[in-house]
User: What shape does this take?
Amino acid sequence: MINYLWLIPIVPLAGATVNGLAGKRMSKSAVSIIACGAAGISFVISLISFFSLLKLAPEQRHVLQVFFTWIASGDFVAKAEFLLDPLSSVMILVVTGVGFVIHVYSIGYMHAENGYYRFFSYMNLFLFSMLVLVLAGNFLLMFVGWEGVGLCSYLLIGYYFDRKSAGDAGKKAFIVNRIGDVGFILGIFLIFLTFNNLNFGEVFRQIATGSQRFPLEAGVGILTAISLLLFVGATGKSAQIPLYVWLPDAMEGPTPVSALIHAATMVTAGVYMVVRCSPIFSRAPLALDVIVIVGILTALMAATIGLVQTDIKRVLAYSTVSQLGYMFVAAGVGAFSAGIFHLMTHAFFKALLFLGAGSVIHAMSGEQDLMRMGALRKHTPITFWTMFIAALAISGIFPLAGFFSKDEILWSAWTRGHHFIWLVGFITAGMTAFYMFRLIFLAFCGESRRSKEADHHLHESPGSMTGPLVILGILSIVGGFVGLPVWMNFGPNKFFLFLEPSLAMTYRPEVHEATHIEELGFAFASILAAVIGIYIAYRMYIRRPKAANELANRFKYMHQFLFRKYYIDELYDFLFIKPAVRISTGFLWKKWDVGVIDNTVNGTGRMIEESGSLLKHVQNGLIRSYAAWIMLGTIAVLLYISFFRS
Amino acid sequence: MDLTHYLILSMLLFLTGAAGFIIKKNVISMFLCLELMLNAVNLAFVAFSKHLNQVNGQIIVFLVMVVAAVEAAVGLAIMIVLYRNRGTLSVDDADTMKW
Amino acid sequence: METVLFYLFGGIALLAAISVVAQKRVFYSAMSLVVCLCAISAEYLLLNAPFIAAVQVIVYAGAIMVLFLFVIMLLDPFSAAVIRDKKKYLSYLAILLGAFALILLYPVLNSFESAPTPRGMELAGSGSIGQIGQALFSEYLLPFEVTSVLILIAIIGVVVLASRRQS
Assistant: This one.
């Protein structure tokens, strides 16, 4: 089955095509069966491929399948090739698994929406693009998937295209991503220029062994440049400073989209790419430092913004940005496996949180403001309990999934000497617990602040929506067990061991060995941070519900500063958008376009018209005149012969 | 007589025909000028044929004559149709194919 | 003797050609052309091409020109009230162009005599009907057959064109 890798992305593509072309004339159930079936089949094939990969010896877990030569131009050869190794196998399982669950959820969530088939067609197309991205065996094919997911993200954010805010958010996501993509493609160019190859294996082998074209000691500068350019791409796709601004706005899309694309899969593509290119990154210490700093700053900043947001999806969006920051910290300190580990567990619990939020919104008839919810626990028990589990998981409470992965990141930061980074990450972990439980308490506990209208329709979601919640809830609990840390005495971390072949080419400096006791202490510290965060949230939103407002009033400016998201959008607006608009209208449009280009184009047309109206008299319908022209032509030829030939 | 004399005679006849083609306003006259030009070319062919001591030139002349006959037949038929439709043989009146 | 004959018939041909152009009436033009054709056929005889000369007289002067005369008779171009001349200057331009071409062509034509005869071209002798027949039915068989197709096409075309449609 491992030989049928191409089926994994092709099945969703077929689903997208069928639904996109014929979905309008099909019943909703047919559309859902096709879409979910495609995702499900893809998941099953991924599972089979994964187990086939497990059967191979660890050194052989690098299955490269070439389908055809895509571009051949002189030296440059790009093939359509898929690479299945532990890293991509984890990714395809996450993408198709979580994707399938969210597809099922969407049946219930989207049942009343217009353009039902359009939604599912886009979702399947997204799965296809994402799978191409993670399975790609070279940079160029990866870029195809990279752009594909960007396109699907744009289409799905703007799904409610009749709302201006949704259209704007879609455009914002698209444009901000483009900025990152420029960096990514420049990085690819530089890779090709340096290594004369785009295949992952080839490039990494050249770096690891040091080839003739690329001696090991000479290339540090160029590796740093490549790494930084690739990281620019990652900041765009994975919403890091300074390009994170599109992700919170992307919440304009339907909630399943937020869960699938803007929490579980697409936004993690940047992390995946950095880990995939770890042989490059690990040899560029400067770039790694940049990644760590950007990652931790993003984590902290997004967490602080998340503390005060009142829109349920925006809290989760900033939480996502923050968690992505963690993943980059992991990659930046050189703990690439830990980043992927967190990517996986985060996909479970963040998808669950979003789907739970969707369920809440569904129950509240579209209300998203946390301040108008409260005491929903009795009405939506399944949603409450699953979201509660997810909140525990993301906060890092033992033994849920988030604990293992987050602890692993913080521990790696400490052992690799980034003590200050550890401290900031530690504080951020506390904040994470706080804002997650703030969300839980505000939505499900305390007193009802709901409107009469919302009360009227209040109901638990149908089985197609709660089922996925339960599945993801279970995954959020057990997901971390695949990577039990060393100090628990179950032997080496299984997950890291599994990923090992993918990181074979990665340069890894010696890490000082710590005792298990030490590590255990740090694990307790992370739990402590989470517990403190939860306790503060409990004090502020359950015991003394007024405390939050009092605090906000006391630190009015601080609160406002955080609530308005550090005024980053306004800053960007002032720094980039306004000048761009002014230059565009003032010079490019009114002067350059109207004055120069339009006049050139119109002038060309007018010139041809004028000369044509002059020349048309030659064609006057008189045979005699034509004959005279022929004779003139003959004479011209004769003149040429007489004067230039003899 | 050498080749040049024949060629010059041929050229004179040809140019007379060509000029006549432009000067004449009557379709039949123009056709006559056309025949004149063809004959001038034929003369050149035959002159070359003798000069090179070759039979090919005469074969070509033979073929040209066939084409001329065909062309005359078709052309005259067109003339009849033209006259039938327009009631005139003046070429300057048949100028509808223009801008 | 040959020179005299050349100039004699050449002069006749040229004068007849000018007459073709100069005559106001089409009928006289056609008759001038007949004279011209006959003079040219005499030149053919001087050029040692009796077959072509015969064909010239029989087919050209005999058949084609008669066809012309038929059409002239049929259409009666003299009755056509106005022969319009939309571009008067064209006539003068034509003479001018002709004269100019004459000047330009003269040196070109002169250069042929001195040009060496191409190699391998002297094989076949010229003139006799037998040789022409040989060449026509061996080397030039395909063009010869194609001319018959051409004539067939012409016949069909002429019939279609000239037949009055009953509609």
